[in-house]
Design brief:
This protein has 1418 residues and is mostly helical. It is 44% helix and 6% strand. The strands form 9 sheets. Strands 9-8-7-6-10 form a 5-stranded antiparallel beta sheet. Strands 13-17-16-15-14 form a 5-stranded antiparallel beta sheet. α17 (421-443) crosses α20 (499-509), α25 packs antiparallel against α26 (635-674) and α47 (1296-1308) runs antiparallel to α49.
C-alpha cells in the first residue's frame, strides 16, 4: 500500500447506512465511495498529487497510481528471488551494525554477490567451457592463520557442486570448482532485488535490524553460519555515527537541545513556526550562549544585534552546507575511485597475452646445448630425425640396419665424421628402401605399366617451373632408370657407393603424374594426396642447387643443412603413405582411449566419497527403521548398532581398497600418457618446450620463425611485489595512472617544442646510466624475456645471435624453478605451467637419463659417466682411410671394382679388352690414371659418338683443323640428364653455379673411369650378355630365326648415359648394372665338368659353344691335349651319329634325377658310365668309385688297392680344395695360347703369368660383404647357375652372403610374422608335445652368424623344417598355415634367383591336429 507522509494509507470506510437511492461519488483510483462531493474532490486531488511514497522501493514524490504500480513491479521482481538465498541474507542482515538501511543493504549485497551458499542453485563449469546448472554441496576455504581474523576474499573459496543430469533418474557429475568457475544465472540476484527483499523485513531504530516476525518465520535464531557457508561469520563495519556515539557519550545539554536527533522520522514531523524556518531556529539555538536552565529576565534585543546574529547564522549555515557538499563529493569520488580500482583489478585478473603482463618472474636458464659438430640451427632437425626413427622403427626395420637402434652419438658421428660417413649412407638407404617397399605395397592395389622414354630434351627453365611442368619432368625422370639401366628405380642396387645417385634419381622422379587408378587410390587411401603434394616436388622448387650438387658429389659430402633437407624430405614422403598414416591414426586413437579411461577413473574417484556417505546414511536409516519396527531395546538394540558399525567399517574398507586401486590405475594411465607427450607448451618469449623420446631431457627451443612486430613502448616497471594482492593492484593502478599522465605531459611538451630535437634524459650533463651499452630498463626487459619496443635489442621479436638457440633442463631443481617462474595469468605460460605440474612426477624421473655428456662439452666433469650398454659393433660398409677424403675412397673403390670385373671377364673367357697391352692398361688404372691405348673410343647407337668429340651435356670439342664436311656428319648427342631442367640460381640476374662447399669428383677422373668401364663393357662378347642390358636366350633365338640383327639397344643407351656421368656413384650404378647383365654361369671360373662333376682345374676346362657347359680336356672321349681350333660342341649339341656298336646296359647305383645338374638330363648316362674314368676309353670296366660313381678298367685303377665295393678313385681319395678367391686370382697359363671366342686376334696376355689384381671391394672396405647382392639387387648368377647339383657337390658348396640375403628377404616378407621368433611356450603350451624340433628364422639367422652351417643345404634344411613344423601343427585352413605356404613359395623363388639349393618337399603326416593347438602369436 502506498505511503502518505511515511505512514500507511488507510482508505475511507463505506457507510453501513447507505440506501439504494442515495447519491454517491466513486474514486476509481482508490476504489472508494463518498457521500460528500467535497470529500470526493479532496481525495481525487490528493491521489493525483506527487506526495506518495512506494512502500517497497522507498521512492517518493509519486502519485498514488505511480506508487501502486511501483509496488506491483517490485513484487513481480521478487517473485523469482531464490529461496536458497533468503535465510543467508536475513542471517547476514542480523550481523550488520548500520544506522542507514542503504548501508546495511550494501554490506549484505557486497558479501553475497561473489559468494555462494550451500544448497544454492548455480551454474558451474567442471570440464572445458561447458557451463551446466548445479547446486552447491559444500564450501572449502583457503587455510588462514589462527590469529588472522580478517575476512577472506571470494577467490579463496572452492565449491563442491553436483551438476544436474539430463536424465532426472541419474545422478549428476560431482566436482570441485574454483571461484571463477561458478556463477549465478544472470539477473537472478542484483543490488535492487537485494534492497527490495530486505526492505520488507527491516525494522527502524538506532541500528537497523530485522523484524521479529521475519526472524521467527525463517527461524534465524537457530541458523548456524557453518550450515549455510564455511568458517566464522563475517564482521561488518559499524556506522560512523555509532562509532562517534560510543566514543563520546551524549551530554544532558545536547540531549535537551536535540531530543529527536536520532530519528529522522521525528525531525520530519517537526513543524517550523510561521515566522521562522526550522533550520533558522536551530541556528538561533546554536548562536545563543545563554543556558536555558538559568532563570534570567528577558532583555530586549537590539535590532542591529539581531540582524548581525541573523547574518552570522546565515554564514554558518552556508559553511555547514558547503562542508556537507564537499564531504558528499569526496565520498562520491572515493566510491568512484574504489569502483575504478575494482574494475581495474577485475581486468587485471583476466588471462592475457604474456607480453602484456607486468608481474613476471625471471625464468631460470637451462643448460645450453652444444653438440659437437651440430649447430643450434640444425639441432631441431637432428632431434626430429632421431624421434622419427624411434617412432617408426618397425616400418623402417631399424634393427636390420643398425642391429639395436640409432642413438644420438652414432647419428652425430655419421653426420660429422668422414670415417662414419657409411652410417649416414646406411640411414638414407634405410629411408629409400622403406619408400620403395611402401610403393610396392601400394602398387599391388593398382597395376600400371611403365615404359621407357629417352631423355633427349634440351630445354632450360628460365624461371620457377610451374607445378604441372615439374610433374611432367618428374614423370620423364621416373622412366630414366628403366630406359638407361634396364631396371626400375626401386630395384636398383643400394650401397654406400650408389646411394647418392639412387637418391638423386628418386628426388627427380618423385611427384610424377600418376595414372587414373593410382590417383584415385591415393586420393581415397592417403587423405586426398596427389602428386602435386609430394615433398620432393617442393624440394626441387625451393632448393634446386641441392640436386645439382648431388650429381657430382657423394651424399655424405653435402653441407649439414643439405643433409637435413634430404632426410626431412624422405621422412615427409614416408609419412604420406597409407600404411604409416594408419599407424599414426592408431597411435592417436590409443592416446584418446587412454585419456578417456583416465577421465572416467577420475570421475569414479570423485563419486566414491559421496557414494560412501550416501550408503552410510542409508544403512543408518535402515537400522533405525528396523529398530523402530521390531521395537528393539537393550542388548538387541546394541547388537543392531554393532552390526551397523561392522557394515559401515566394511564399506569404509571397500572404499579404501577402491581408492588404492584407482590411484594405482591412475598412475599407470598417467605413465602411459606421458609416453605420448612431446610438445609441452611455450613461454612468454614464444620459446617452445619439447620432451624428446630418444634423448632424455626437457628441451627449450628459441626458433627463428617470425613473431610479429615489437610493441609501441615497453611495459613500465611494476611495483614491488607483496602478498596482499589488493594492495599490489591498487599501487599498480596508481602507477599506471601516473604514467599515463606523464605521457600526456611529454606529448604536450613535445608539441610545444615543435621541431626542437629530443634529447634523452639519461644523456643530460654528459651523464649516462647505461650498463654494458644497454639501458637498465632494456636490460630488465631482456632478463624477463619481455619486449623492449626496439627490434635491435628485443629478445622476443628481434633477430640476432640469440636465435635459434637450444637449452635443456636436466635436474629436478631446474624443473621446480621453472614451474614457479611461469605466470598463471599468461595465455601461454598458464597452459605450460599446467602441463608441467601435471607431468611433474614422470618428467623428473625421465630427465635423470639425460645424456648431458653428449649435449654440452663441459658436462663430463659435472655428470657421472653413463655405463655403456652392450651392443653389437657394426661392420663399416665403406672404409675411408684417415689420409684421404671420401671422394678419393670412392674413386679407389670404383677402380678396384672395374679391375675386378675385367679380371673375371678375362679369366672367365667371356671376352677380352681390345687394347695392345692389357697389363699396362690395368697398371695405369691401379696408379690412379687411365690410358685407353687407342686414338678414340666410339659408343652409342651405331657407335656414332666419339669420346674425343662428344663431351657431357651435348657439348662438342672439335679440333681446329677438322674439315667442315666432317663436322656435318658428326652426330649430335641429344641425351640430357634428368636433372638438366632444374632452375639455376641467379646472382644479379646472371645464372651461376653455387659455390662448392666441399670437394666434388674431378670431371677428368670421372670421365677416364667411365671410358675404362666402357672398354670393359665392349670387351664382353654379346652372347654372354643377358637382361637387363643384353638379350635373353628366347629373344636371341627368335631374332636368329627371323634373321634380324642382334642389336643391343639397352646396352647402347647404357653407354650413352655412362659417358654422361659426373659422379662416382653414377659410375658405380652403371658398373653394377653391367655386372648383373653378364652371364656368369658361362664363365670358366664357375663352370663344372659335366663328366666328373667337379669345378677343379679351371685351366683345363673347355666350354661348349652351344650350351656353355664345361668339360675337362682329359675327361673327354678321347682325351684332348689342347683347346681345339674354331667352335667346339659337346656330344649333346653336335648332331647325333648312328654307330653300329651295340651298347651294353650296365646296372649301377644311379643318383636321383632331381639331384643332378640339368645338363645330365640331356647327357647319355649309359654312355658316360661305359667309359673309363682314367683313360676315357671303353671296354670291360671292373671297378666303380663309391664316391663319384666313376668306372675304371682293372689296369687303370690303383694297382695297390683291392677292387671292392669300398673302392675310391685317386681323385676322390686325394681331393684338391681350392678357394673361390684362388679361382679369381690364379692365372690361366694353360689358356694363354687360346683364341678368344668372338675375336680372331690372339689374346693379349702373352707376357707370362699376370700380376695379381688390386684387392677387391670387400677387402678394401674391411669386411667380406656379399659380392652378388650389390651387383644384381636380388637377381644373382655370379657363382652358380640356377640348376640343381648332385649330392656330393652340394655338400661342398657354401655361400654365406647369398644365405644372409635369403634370410633378410624372408624376414622382411609380410607373411614372416608367425616364423620370425620362437613360438612362446607359455602361450602355446602343447606346442612341444607335437613338435619335436622347433625352428624359426631368428634362430637360423643366429646360427648363420655364428658359423654353425657348413653348407647351403644345411641352412635350407632348417628353413624347410620351419614350414614342416607349421604344417604339422596347424590345419591347412589356418591363417598361419596359409602364411607359411605363401612364404615358402617366396623362399623357393629366391633360392632359385640366388642359385641356392631348392627347399626339399615337406612331408606332413595326414592326421588331425590336437584340439588344443593354437597359432603362434606375434
Amino acid at each position: 500500500m502506498p505511503l502518505l507522509k511515511r505512514k500507511a494509507f488507510e482508505k475511507t470506510a463505506v457507510s453501513e447506512y447507505l440506501r439504494d437511492d442515495d447519491e454517491v461519488f466513486h474514486c476509481e483510483i482508490t476504489d472508494e465511495i463518498f457521500k460528500d462531493y467535497e470529500e470526493y474532490c479532496e481525495r481525487v486531488i490528493l491521489v493525483n498529487s506527487m506526495v506518495w511514497t512506494c512502500e517497497m522501493t522507498g521512492r517518493n514524490n509519486l502519485t498514488y497510481a505511480e506508487a501502486l504500480e511501483s509496488e506491483k513491479a517490485a513484487r513481480r521482481s521478487l517473485k523469482d528471488f531464490p529461496m536458497e538465498l533468503r535465510i543467508p541474507i536475513l542471517y547476514l542482515a542480523t550481523k550488520t551494525k548500520r544506522c542507514s538501511f542503504a548501508e546495511m543493504s550494501e554490506d549484505v549485497f557486497n558479501f553475497v554477490r561473489e559468494r555462494f551458499f550451500v544448497g544454492e542453485t548455480v551454474e558451474a563449469c567442471l570440464e572445458g567451457d561447458q557451463w551446466r546448472e548445479a547446486h552447491v554441496l559444500s564450501i572449502t576455504a583457503q587455510k588462514q592463520r589462527p590469529d588472522n581474523k580478517s575476512m577472506l576474499p571470494p577467490a579463496a573459496y572452492c565449491y563442491e557442486v553436483e551438476q544436474f543430469a539430463d536424465d532426472p533418474t541419474e545422478s549428476g557429475q560431482i566436482g570441485t570448482a574454483p571461484h571463477d568457475r561458478v556463477r549465478r544465472r544472470k539477473g537472478i540476484y542484483t543490488r535492487d532485488k537485494n534492497r527490495l527483499f530486505l526492505k520488507q523485513f527491516v525494522a527502524p531504530g538506532t541500528v537497523i535490524g530485522v523484524k521479529r516476525a521475519a526472524l521467527d518465520k525463517y527461524n534465524i535464531a537457530k541458523v548456524n553460519f557453518e550450515q549455510i557457508f564455511t568458517g566464522n561469520p563475517p564482521e561488518f563495519p559499524s556506522s560512523k555515527k555509532l562509532i562517534k556515539s560510543s566514543m563520546s557519550p551524549p551530554t544532558t545539554s545536547k540531549l535537551l537541545a536535540k531530543p529527536g536527533s536520532t530519528s529522522k522520522l521525528n525531525r520530519s514531523l517537526k513543524k517550523p513556526s510561521p515566522d521562522k524556518k526550522g533550520r533558522q531556529e536551530s541556528m538561533d539555538k546554536f548562536v545563543k550562549k545563554t543556558d536555558k536552565t538559568e532563570a534570567k529576565p528577558k532583555t530586549p534585543i537590539d535590532p542591529a544585534a539581531r540582524k548581525t546574529q541573523q547574518d552570522l547564522a546565515d554564514k554558518m549555515r552556508k559553511a555547514e552546507e558547503l562542508m556537507r557538499q564537499r564531504k558528499e563529493e569526496e565520498k562520491l569520488k572515493k566510491k568512484e575511485k574504489n569502483a575504478r580500482v575494482m574494475a581495474f583489478m577485475k581486468e587485471w585478473q583476466k588471462v592475457k597475452d604474456d607480453q602484456e603482463l607486468e608481474d613476471h618472474k625471471v625464468i631460470p636458464k637451462g643448460t645450453v646445448v652444444e653438440v659437437e659438430g651440430i649447430s643450434h640451427k640444425h639441432f631441431g632437425d637432428f632431434l626430429s630425425v632421431l624421434e622419427f626413427v624411434q617412432n617408426f622403427s618397425e616400418v623402417l626395420k631399424v634393427k636390420d640396419v643398425f642391429h639395436n637402434e640409432l642413438d644420438m652419438e652414432t647419428f652425430r658421428k655419421a653426420l660429422t665424421t668422414k670415417e662414419n660417413a657409411w652410417m649416414f649412407s646406411e640411414l638414407v638407404q634405410m629411408f629409400l628402401t622403406t619408400i620403395f617397399s611402401l610403393q610396392e605395397d601400394e602398387a599391388e592395389e593398382y597395376n600400371e605399366k611403365k615404359g621407357i622414354q629417352e631423355s633427349v630434351e634440351n630445354e632450360q627453365i628460365e624461371g620457377p617451373a610451374s607445378t604441372s611442368r615439374a610433374m611432367e619432368l618428374a614423370t620423364k625422370a621416373g622412366k630414366w632408370a628403366q630406359t638407361y639401366l634396364g631396371t626400375s628405380l626401386s630395384k636398383l642396387p643400394l650401397d654406400p657407393t650408389t646411394v647418392s645417385e639412387v637418391l638423386r634419381l628418386h628426388l627427380l622422379s618423385s611427384g610424377g603424374a600418376a595414372g587414373a587408378r593410382c590417383a584415385a587410390w591415393r586420393h581415397h587411401q592417403r587423405g586426398g594426396y596427389s602428386s602435386a603434394d609430394d615433398p620432393a616436388l617442393r624440394l626441387r622448387a625451393t632448393s634446386p642447387e641441392l640436386l645439382r650438387r648431388l650429381r657430382s658429389r657423394h651424399l655424405a659430402d653435402l653441407a649439414m643443412g643439405d643433409k637435413f633437407l634430404v632426410m626431412q624430405c624422405l621422412m615427409n614422403q614416408i609419412l604420406s603413405y597409407a600404411t604409416v598414416r594408419d599407424q599414426v591414426e592408431e597411435k592417436i586413437e590409443e592416446y584418446k582411449n587412454l585419456k578417456q579411461a583416465l577421465r572416467m577413473l577420475q570421475i569414479s574417484e570423485r563419486k566414491r566419497e559421496p557414494q560412501l556417505t550416501a550408503a552410510r546414511v542409508e544403512l543408518k536409516k535402515e537400522t533405525a527403521l528396523r529398530k523402530e519396527e521390531l521395537k528393539l531395546t537393550g542388548d538387541q538394540a546394541k547388537l543392531a548398532d554393532d552390526q551397523l558399525t561392522m557394515a559401515i567399517d566394511k564399506l569404509k574398507k571397500e572404499s579404501e581398497a577402491k581408492k588404492l586401486e584407482n590411484e594405482k590405475k591412475t598412475k599407470e594411465l598417467q605413465a602411459q600418457l606421458f609416453d605420448y607427450t612431446t610438445y609441452v607448451g611455450s613461454d612468454r618469449a614464444f620459446r617452445r618446450y619439447w620432451i624428446s623420446r630418444r634423448v632424455a631431457g626437457l628441451f627449450v627451443e628459441a626458433g627463428v620463425e617470425p613473431r610479429g612486430p615489437c610493441r609501441n613502448k615497453p611495459l613500465p616497471p611494476p611495483p614491488a611485489p607483496t602478498d596482499d594482492v589488493m594492495a599490489y593492484v591498487t599501487e599498480l593502478y596508481h602507477s599506471e595512472k601516473e604514467q599515463a599522465g606523464s605521457d600526456k605531459e611529454n606529448e604536450s611538451a613535445a608539441n610545444s617544442r615543435s621541431g626542437s630535437p629530443k634529447k634523452p634524459l639519461t644523456n643530460l650533463n654528459g651523464l649516462t646510466h647505461k650498463l654494458n651499452g644497454v639501458d637498465p630498463s632494456t636490460q630488465h626487459c631482456r632478463d624477463l624475456l619481455l619486449c623492449t619496443a626496439d627490434t635491435n635489442t628485443c629478445y622476443v621479436h628481434g633477430k640476432g645471435d640469440y636465435r635459434p638457440q637450444w637449452w635443456v633442463y636436466n635436474t629436478e631443481e631446474q624443473i621446480e624453478q621453472l614451474i614457479e617462474s611461469l605466470n598463471k595469468r599468461g595465455l601461454r605460460e598458464s597452459e605450460l605451467r599446467q602441463n608441467l605440474e601435471l607431468e611433474r612426477e614422470h618428467l623428473v624421473e625421465y630427465i635423470k637419463k639425460c645424456p648431458l655428456v653428449y649435449l654440452t662439452p663441459g658436462a663430463a666433469q659435472l655428470q657421472p659417466q653413463i655405463a655403456p650398454t652392450t651392443r653389437r659393433r657394426l661392420q663399416p660398409s665403406l672404409k675411408v682411410p684417415p689420409d684421404c677424403s671420401l671422394s678419393e675412397a670412392l674413386e679407389l673403390s670404383l677402380r678396384d671394382h672395374i679391375l675386378e670385373l675385367e679380371e673375371k671377364i678375362f679369366h672367365g673367357c667371356l671376352g677380352a679388352l681390345q687394347v695392345k697391352d692389357r697389363e699396362a692398361w690395368r697398371g695405369t688404372i691401379m696408379l690412379r690414371g687411365y690410358d685407353k691405348q687407342a686414338d678414340y673410343l666410339s659408343w652409342g647407337p651405331s657407335k656414332q659418338f666419339r669420346d674425343d668429340y662428344h663431351q657431357p651435356d651435348g657439348l662438342l670439342r672439335l679440333p681446329h683443323d677438322i674439315d667442315k664436311s666432317e663436322i656435318e656428319i658428326i652426330a649430335e648427342n641429344k641425351y640430357r640428364d634428368p636433372g638438366h631442367c632444374l632452375e639455376v640460381s641467379k646472382v644479379n640476374g646472371v645464372k651461376s653455379e653455387p659455390e662448392e662447399d666441399s670437394p666434388a669428383a674431378k670431371p677428368d677422373v670421372v670421365r677416364g673411369l667411365a671410358c675404362a668401364l666402357l672398354q670393359v663393357a665392349q670387351s664382353i662378347h654379346q652372347k654372354y650378355l643377358r637382361r637387363p642390358l643384353g638379350l635373353d636366350e628366347k629373344e636371341r633365338r627368335d631374332r636368329e630365326a627371323r634373321h634380324r640383327p642382334l642389336e643391343l639397344d639397352a646396352l647402347e643407351r647404357w653407354e650413352v648415359s655412362l659417358l654422361e656421368s659426373r659422379s662416382f656413384a653414377a659410375l658405380a650404378l652403371h658398373l653394377l648394372a653391367l655386372d648383373s647383365s653378364v652371364s656368369w654361369a658361362a664363365s670358366v671360373l664357375n663352370a663344372s665338368c659335366r663328366v666328373c662333376r667337379r669345378r677343379a682345374d679351371p685351366d683345363s676346362m673347355l666350354l661348349c659353344d652351344g650350351c656353355n657347359k664345361g668339360h675337362h680336356l682329359y675327361c673327354l672321349k678321347p682325351k684332348l691335349a689342347k683347346v681345339p681350333e674354331g667352335d667346339w660342341f659337346c656330344e649333346q649339341c653336335k648332331p647325333k651319329e648312328k654307330t653300329p656298336r651295340k651298347r651294353r646296359k650296365l646296372y649301377t647305383e644311379e643318383k636321383p634325377e632331381e639331384e643332378l645338374d640339368d645338363s645330365s638330363e640331356a647327357f647319355d648316362a649309359e654312355e658316360a658310365l661305359s667309359l673309363c674314368g682314367a683313360c676315357g676309353s671303353g671296354g670291360r670296366l671292373a671297378a666303380q668309385c663309391r664316391a663319384c660313381a666313376a668306372r675304371f678298367h682293372e689296369e687303370c685303377a690303383a694297382p695297390r688297392q683291392r677292387l671292392s665295393r669300398r673302392f675310391l678313385c685317386e681323385a676322390c681319395a686325394n681331393p684338391t680344395r681350392e678357394s673361390e678367391d684362388s679361382d679369381y686370382n690364379s692365372s690361366l697359363v694353360s689358356l694363354k695360347g687360346k683364341k678368344s671366342r668372338g675375336s680372331k686376334e690372339p689374346s693379349p696376355m702373352t707376357n707370362g703369368t699376370p700380376k695379381r689384381g688390386r684387392k677387391p671391394k670387400e677387402v678394401l672396405n674391411g669386411s667380406t660383404t656379399r659380392r652378388s647382392k650389390s651387383l644384381t639387387h636380388g637377381v644373382h648368377e655370379e657363382t652358380r647357375t640356377g640348376k640343381k647339383r648332385g649330392r656330393r657337390e652340394m655338400v661342398e658348396v657354401f655361400h654365406p652372403e647369398a644365405l644372409a640375403q635369403l634370410l633378410t628377404d624372408a624376414m622382411r616378407h609380410k607373411d614372416s610374422w608367425p616364423f620370425y621368433e620362437p613360438v612362446p611356450v607359455d602361450e602355446v603350451p602343447d606346442y612341444l608335445n607335437v613338435i619335436e624340433q622347433p625352428m624359426d628364422l631368428s634362430t637360423i639367422k643366429a646360427k648363420l652368424e655364428s658359423s654353425q652351417y657348413a653348407t647351403d643345404a644345411a641352412l635350407v634344411a632348417d628353413v624347410a623344417l620351419v614350414f614342416n613344423n607349421c604344417y604339422t601343427y596347424n590345419k591347412d585352413s589356418h591363417p598361419v598355415a596359409k602364411a607359411g605356404m605363401r612364404l615358402e613359395k617366396f623362399i623357393s623363388k629366391r633360392c632359385t634367383e640366388l642359385n641356392l639349393p631348392s627347399l626339399p618337399d615337406t612331408n606332413v603326416e595326414d592326421e588331425d591336429p590336437p584340439s588344443a593347438k593354437r597359432a603362434k602369436l606375434d
